[in-house]
Give the backbone structure.
Amino acid sequence: MFRFHRFQYRIIFFFSGLLILVQLLAFLAINETNIRNSKEQIENGLVVGSRVFTRLMNSRLERLAESARLLSGDFAFKTAYSTGDKATILSAMDNQRSRVGADVMMIVSTDYSVMADTLRPKEAQVPFSFPELIKKAEEQGETSSIVLINGQPYQLVIVPLLAPVPISWICIGFTIDNKLARDFQGITLLDITFIRERPDHHLDILASTLSKPLSDSLISVFSQFVASAQKIDVIRLKNDNYMSIRIPLNKGSDHFVSVLMQSSVEKALEHFYRLRSALIGLFAGSIFLSLFGAVMIARSVTKPVLALAEAAKRIEEGEYEHRVTVAQKDELGSLAAAFNTMAHGIAEREEQIRYQAYHDRLTGLPNRECLHIELDKAIQSSQSADIAPILLMLNLNRFKAINGILGLRIGDLLLKQVGERLSSFVTESSITFHLGGDNFVLLFPEGRGVEHGVDIAQRLLAGFEGPFLVEGHPISLDARIGIAVSPIHGNDTETLIKCVDIAAHLAKDSADDYTVYSPRLDKQAPRQLTMLGELRQAIEQDDLVLYYQPKINIKDGRISGVESLVRWNHPEHGLVPPDDFIPLAEQTGLIKPLTRWALKTAFAQKEAFRKSGLEIKVAVNLSARNLQDEQLPLVVSELLQYYKIDPPSIILEITESAIMLDPERSMQIIKRLDGLGVNISIDDFGTGYSSLGYLQRLPVDELKIDKSFVTQMDRNSNDVVIVRSVIELAHNLGLKVTAEGIETKETYDMLEQLGCDRGQGYLMSRPLPIAAFYQWLQDSKWGISL
Amino acid sequence: MRNALFTGFVLSILLAGFIRNAHSATIRVLVSDDRGTPVKDAVVYAELKEGKYPPPKKMTATMDQQNKEFIPYVLPVQIGTSVNFPNSDNIRHHVYSFSPAKKFELPLYKGKPGNPVVFDKQGAVAVGCNIHDWMIAYIYVVDTPYFAKTSENGKSNLSDLPAALYEIKVWHPRMKSASEITAKQLRIQKNEELDYRIELKPEWRLHRPPPSGMGRY
């Protein structure tokens, strides 16, 4: 079963249509030509027939006339005639009549009376019925005419009986009857009808080869035909057309006799009709064959094309496995082959694109898009509340710092290892996704509640305890995990991902390594945003304050300077610790105005100290972000000039990790700051991974040993070793050393022994608001009374 | 010149008649057809209406046959005339007539036949030759000694007519009407001139050689 298709139609229509058209035209031409030829043949037949008829009729008449003339010249007959012996005359006439095959013979006297008549031998002298014929013969010598004698038509010839002048007239004639007509028909092959038209236009069929019904019907139509003598006309008799020609024979006073010669058109066309039937059969056959052929050819084209179209549709629908099978070895076959190759190529490429779309390029793990899909699937197929998907989101704390210090390449390699470890670690049927950066997600489609999630988290964290070795660098990671469990935290993809996101975010700053999502946490995330707005407001409205922690010169036990520390006195939450809002400010870029504010306030305070006669150095903390800020040296320079401060009395503290975020740019900024004459101090030294070799190249004046080493010095000899090494190293590099986190007198003493230059810590003082600081100056043994 | 001669000729005739019979007259007859064409070979004859003809003499005439033609074509004779039919050709002729006025037959002969044929009945006698159909001649037998035949110019003279009442008739082989119709009755005392207009039938004559007859219908 084939489907009609436009193309197929076109092929069929074109070829078959062309053939049909050509054949139709050929047929019409043949038909037309044949009919015309047949008609011409009939016409020719009629013309020839009419001539033959005329000739035959004349020769027949002439034969009669000749025989009559012979008779008239026959002396014996003349002698017999002159005797007036009627019986003798009649017998002689009869003899002569039968000799020439005439039907009638008469002798008419010059005064128009019949002397003898073979038809009516007994009759006495009666007037001749056709005296005008004798008159005509007198004029012309001889004449002939068709006359009716007793209703029977005769062709009469009238010649004189010469003795030697006409002494009477010999009339000799033959009957015009159907036999005569048939005789003529036998020669001319035409239908012959002798017709008499009376003066009143009444018609008589004198003789005819036509059947009675036909000749009868001829009477009704003939009158229209009378006018056109010697012209070929078509007369319709019954159901047939007759080409007809009329030959007027003679016109008398009471009659007008014509012969009508006819040929049936249908009969003439009969042989052509047979030929035409054969032609129609031939044409129909060839049209059928061509139609069949066109359909076959069209199908041989359209079938594979349809198959290809079908295949293209399948490809469109993403079904690439289907192969088009075209058995033909022609162009379509090679097209089909190319199609299959193309489908294969598209499938491969789509697979590649799909892979890229759904996988992280770095780790090769499924990405966020994939997470959505897989989680959708997992939720859809989760059977009950007992067995439902669990999501774990894992972030690496301080990964940015690692990236910064060890370079992106190491960071990338580290992430790959993390991915691998995550993928290989979990035994349950799970999928590990890498959402980018240090953000990983694990999906457990068949989780069994919160405890299961926590269990997995704990085992994961355990797996992260050992350091990662990347190109010889042992790197310890602080992994934090957020947990969200379906259906209790959400039963749709978006909600569940949002939940795990919040949980992971909060886990970062949480004391615990993992955080299970709870609706309560939802409030914390917005709180951060609120806080950001409030912080901006605080900076603008001067709601922040600087606290000052004294730095003691260990050699003389007196204050040598202060470290200024930013505090936020929140109108609702009270004093907000720096760890709560500094990272926030760093993430959002609010750190710039914050630092400016701190610098301005500290410089103003320094000015205030000087005015009150207190010559101490003031330290201000710079954030990692500040070291990317090209404007910072200008700001510092302007402030120095504004407050007319001696630059070396200002210390700018920079954490080790901040420098390592972008060492090159940091180096530039630091050098420019150093160029202003201010002192540079490295804060929290020992926690980062900076090398001393690198630090040496920096214009640094001071190292501040991180309190984690200092606080437990009195209990941990390792720390003492580190502190000692740092101090010695710093001194060797010509740097001053400040120890942070001094809480006990023992520590202080130990540091004094180790030759540490300066110290700060709770032993001396906590960071204090300015008023308390002034009080401390008055009261403390470390202080200086003004 | 010709006129002078002609005038002289006529005068001499008139003069001669006048001299011979003071009571006789000459009737000059012109026969023409209905179109005015002079008709030759017309027989003009005057029949006496009163009195008697002079007694007939022994009259002879000749109808010659030369070159398969009768000469003359028309021969007027008075009743009782013996007509000879000499054959001047070197072939035979079979002279005959079936006319009611005189039926006779001179079977094939050469030279001069033995006896002349006496025409003793008034009327036209069509004479033919049985073996030469075209040979036709007319012998017109009149019952009067006063007859003549028109010449080429259609003229003839009936001369030496005694003064009397006459009926003057014309006959021609092709004449349509009978002679009686055109007859003119006339008392003749002096010379007269008569014009006859006769209607002629179309020339009917077999021609030699005889036509084939074909194609005439």
Summary: Chain B touches chain A at residues 94, 96-99, 103, 126-130, 133-136, 173, 201-202, 204, 206, 213-217 (CB under 8 Å).
